[in-house]
Amino acid sequence: EAQARCPELVVVKYDQVADARAFEPVVECLEALTPGVQVIRPGMCAVKARGPARFYGNEETAAEKLLDRLETFEVPGGRIGIADGPFTAEQAARASSERTRVLVVPPGESPEFLAPLSVDVLEQSTLTGLLRRLGLRSLGAFAQLPPAEVLTRFGPDGAFAHQLARGADDRPLVAREVPPELTRTLEFEPPVDRVDQVAFAARSVADELVARLTELGGVCTTLRVEVGTESGRIHEREWLHPRWFTAADVVDRVRWQLQGSGTATSGLTSAVTRIRLIPEQVDPVGSQADGLWGGGPDERIHRALTRVQSMLGHGAVVSVVVGGGRGFAERQTLIPWGDRPVPAHAPDQPWP
């Protein structure tokens, strides 16, 4: 309907990784005040109230401190709900307003608070549709059913939803493990306007990054390179590797990204002021090791193709991925070596 009203509208597929990356500074901001933050999903997190309440005097004051901290880091509009369990606290946060940013559900009063809410807040479309057909439109009406009969009629998922509706959410709060800082940044003062000079300087931070990953027992399989220029623009790209990145591979990706403006010895359209290397996906070394009978691309083939790719450019070596389409030519998609093998058209749909 939106596209019918606005034909030039572009629909972008949801990218959870991008949302998680954007939400990461918010989580770090909260962890500076209180440890043990659990990220439920990008945009929502939970913390235990006992520790901050003891430190700041009470729960409301602690919540206000957290919101003030977020506003200091230019994250306005935060809401906090305090309750016995995560589900009730989430609904309390949603029920808060701009004037009352913190809503507290007193201990033991979760069932009364949840009772008038719609069953849609359970976020189980199949279950809520069935409940509405049965005349159960509120959490209070659903909570009055016997738990044993709910389990028999609706299964484990329905029994869990029934537990939430009764305000008996006993899920423990599992704090996230703070990941080690792996991002490496290289500043250029004065700015550099040659590709080969930038690539040569990037070798030191690439060696440092790979050495740090080796200490942690991991390897990088997806790397994001951000290039800041003197004009103020930031050029970023996500690079994949069929096995894992070595320091030489990282330097090659930096050079290939810069070569969009020319050859290895040519000048850039705008001088480079900063290079950031951000490992997007880090796997344990053991998960990337070859099995007893081999596995993954042959090491000799990979080295040869990577060598040719480093001399001729990122798009000079490609592999074929079969997707959907009418004819054989339309079904094949050429993917640069090392990139994610995603066809241009979904393979389960014959028509483009």
TrEMBL record:
Coiled coil: none annotated. InterPro entries: DNA/RNA_pol_sf (IPR043502), SulA_CellDiv_inhibitor (IPR050356). The keyword Zinc-finger does not apply. GO terms for biological process: DNA repair. It comes from the Bacteria. Keywords: DNA damage. The keyword Coiled coil does not apply. PANTHER family: BLR3025 PROTEIN, BLR3025 PROTEIN-RELATED. This is DNA polymerase Y family protein. The lineage of its organism: Bacteria, Bacillati, Actinomycetota, Actinomycetes, Propionibacteriales.
